[in-house]
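Researcher: Please translate sequence to structure tokens.
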Amino acid sequence: MKLVKEPEKISGARMSGPYFLPLCTEASPIQAVRFGLKFLSEYCEKEKLNYHLRVNLDRPE
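Model: Translation complete:
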């Protein structure tokens, strides 16, 4: 049995939300962006890099 994800309704006011691993061809582009931002944030924290992401999916400008 294969699990089917519901199509995601995206609001222009708030883009944050869940993503599912592993990313596959069924993932939406915004899920890939969410994963990439989280991955980069955790990498910078782990490597103790003094870098803060300027992308905020909760408040797009």
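Researcher: Any highlights?
Model: Helices lie at 29-46.
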